[in-house]
Amino acid sequence: MSETASISINGKSYELPVITGTENEQGIDISKLRDVSGAITIDPGYKNTGATKSAITFLDGEKGVLHYRGYPIEQLAEQSTFLEVAYLLIYGDLPSAQVLADFRKKISRHTLIHEDMKKFFDGFPSKSHPMGQLSCLVGALSAFYPESLNPNMTEEEEELTIIKLLAKMPTIVSWIYKKSLGHPVIYPRNELNFVHNFLNMTFGQITEDVVIDKVIVDAMHKLLILHADHEQNCSTSTVRIVGSSNANLYASISAGISALWGPLHGGANQAVIEMLENIRNDGGDSAKWLAKAKDKNDPFRLMGFGHRVYKNFDPRAKIIKKACDDVLDKLGINDPVLDIAKQLEEAALKDQYFVDRKLYPNVDFYSGIIYRALGFPTDMFTVLFALGRLPGWIAQWKEMRANKEPIGRPRQIYTGSTKRDYVPLDQR
Ligand code: ACO
Fold it and tell me: Could you name the active-site residues (predicted)?
């Protein structure tokens, strides 16, 4: 017999269906609640609200579990490649060797961006933040591919829109970097794999051949895989809600990029390194900074700590911490902020404030140290997160369309003035 939940409002009782997911998560289906009772639910920050049913990513915050389409993140980070994971997320299953080769080939046919898009790069001030540029450039793709605007596009047209975005994003990201240096851009090379091609466009030089170290390529695959999806977070929900109005894919992802930018979300990776640098310049006293983070009168928070869903450990942080040691070791880099990060983590994990609130290092705590070791400047970190998250956003947008989800439109409880009459200006 299926479960129900009962709710009583103004002395009247209502039975609501309870739905159970494949991993036995339960949710009370309130979709008819307002129709039958007139009442709505209030849940600031959606801490208890499921916005959709989804078959893409499963995570259990209490146990520190993360699966993409059923596959544990640890196995994918160790054994897969970023493009394979992108395929898995978007299409639902791991591809055969032939299917993956075809996917790769299709993407390699669309890596160039329209030459007119270069004018955008010329227009941005050289010091403008890469995330602002990225959001603008991705949204601008809709101007170059107007067929993407049709909400009733065929499956083939939808597929091409997706392939174009996957293919062009690395070119856009690396060109943002090149332009910030005032260097000429490097064009895509189709014989290189997706990640290697991105690194070549980023760190290659027009004047000479640059060999990208395999350690760097492997680390980049791992980082991008770890960021590839994370179910209904702030940026992903943004992508789904913008897409639910039938806005095109490029506009929806551009909105997701803006949502990711904030330091409480993807922007934390930049904020962590800036924080660690500040602590270092301040003498490296982690106790002083922990005290600041605990002080309710001080707006400072320990960046890269805490997570809405993970309340035990973030499995991605565990993998990244190890990768961080490996990468720095292999590249022979000694970064003093890594020691500060480790001291801070150790102290926080023993501190009652952090223990009581179940605050652990999240994916962003160590990722910036790796990005820096690979040669990226701090303000590019969140853009790299966006590059990694792209397949997840696309998969979620595609699922939202396939499910024919209604337009996202929350309700509210009004707390403003009740009806009053207009007073002409000369009488106020
Ligand atoms: N430093 C100090 N205190 C913290 C921190 C932190 N990093 N994170 C949470 N807390 C405290 C809060 O002050 C609050 O304390 P209280 O109960 O005494 O009022 C309690 O822990 C719960 O925090 P909330 O803000 O209510 O938790 P929420 O789930 O809304 O926020 C968030 C989660 C935004 C990630 C938060 O932990 C945070 O701001 N962390 C720092 C920023 C960060 O690293 N963001 C990246 C997250 S991962 C990602 O998006 C990719």
Answer: 307, 364
**pLDDT tens digit sequence for 248-291:** 999 999 999 999 999 999 999 999 999 999 999 999 898 999 99
Which of 314, 351, 364, 379 is catalytic? The answer is 364
Catalytic (active site) residue 364? yes
Q: Is the CB of 303 under 6 A from ligand 1?
A: yes
Q: Cα(231)–Cα(27) distance, rounded to whole angstroms?
A: 16
The average confidence (pLDDT) of the chain is: 95
**Which helix or strand (DSSP H or E) is residue 65 part of?**
strand 65-68
Domain ranges, ordered by start, for the chain: 1-42, 51-406
Q: How far is the CA of 304 from the centre of ligand 1 (A)?
A: 9
Ligand 1 close to Cβ of residue 214 (< 6 A): no
The H or E element that residue 256 is part of is helix 249-261
Give me the CATH topology for the region 51-406: Citrate Synthase; domain 1 (1.10.580)
